[in-house]
Amino acid sequence: MAEPILQLSEIRKTFGALKATDGVSLDLRKGEIHALIGPNGAGKSTLIHQICGSIRPDSGTIRFLGEDMAGLDMAARVRKGLGRSFQISSLAPEFSALRNVMLAVQARQGSSYRFFRPVAGDRSLTGPAMAMLERVGLEKRAKVPAAELSHGERRQLEIAIALALEPKAFLFDEPMAGLGPEGSKRLTGFLDGLRHEAPILLVEHDMDAVFALADRISVLVYGRIIATGTVAEIRSDPEVRRAYLGDAA
Ligand SMILES: Nc1ncnc2c1ncn2[C@@H]1O[C@H](COP(=O)(O)OP(=O)(O)OP(=O)(O)O)[C@@H](O)[C@H]1O
């Protein structure tokens, strides 16, 4: 089998006496959505932070496209192709939706030689940025400042920014949070197609979305993965039902 795009081996992180991630091993393969589920406080966000480089593991290895990520900071990992969209917004609120995406396109293109050119009028940036807004269905809101967008629209914008960086894998931490049924349905459809562009590690509490999308699911409880499998395997696993899914299965 081809080497996984992303491979975590025995990742550990403690906060004082608390083992937030306690020997987590998992992989993300080409073309798949791998969902990471588990109760509140299980360590899901801590794990995502360790992959993207904002938290350093105490031990264990993270390999992305065959390369050990240990020495790389967050920005370097983004440049390597690790794309992400987070619970906590990273938008520039006073800038328009379009300009937020243009900044990401500029970062992708490598901005040093265009340092003195004003970003607002640069067609090599507006074209690709508009294309990203169209993909997420936000083109009609291109000129609206990010601060004035609805919660759902801001989530769409964050995904457009992640796309603009042309990642080789996506890390999504609760993208459905606060979207409502209609928004979740739309985003589910969008992520469904996205997996063919780059595989997705998806942390999500919305089980309808997880069951609709996941090729594989890993269940994290108290920092440990208690099961990895297909949707059917996970839904029928007695330990998973006891620890997390209960009636949702
Ligand atoms: N910086 C920190 N310092 C101390 N404890 C922390 C820190 N970050 C997380 N924790 C603790 O680590 C544990 C795992 O938290 P984490 O946010 O990773 O869980 P989670 O599975 O993402 O939860 P949720 O589903 O509620 O987002 C929790 O007990 C949390 O309180």
TrEMBL record:
Xref: Gene3D superfamilies: P-loop containing nucleotide triphosphate hydrolases
InterPro entries in alphabetical order: AAA+_ATPase (IPR003593), ABC_AA/LPS_Transport (IPR051120), ABC_transporter-like_ATP-bd (IPR003439), BCA_ABC_TP_C (IPR032823), P-loop_NTPase (IPR027417)
Keywords attached to this entry: ATP-binding, Nucleotide-binding, Transport
Single GO term (MF): ATP binding
Top-level taxon in the UniProt lineage: Bacteria
Domain ABC transporter residues, every copy: 6-247
Pfam families assigned: ABC_tran, BCA_ABC_TP_C
Protein name (record): Branched-chain amino acid transport system ATP-binding protein
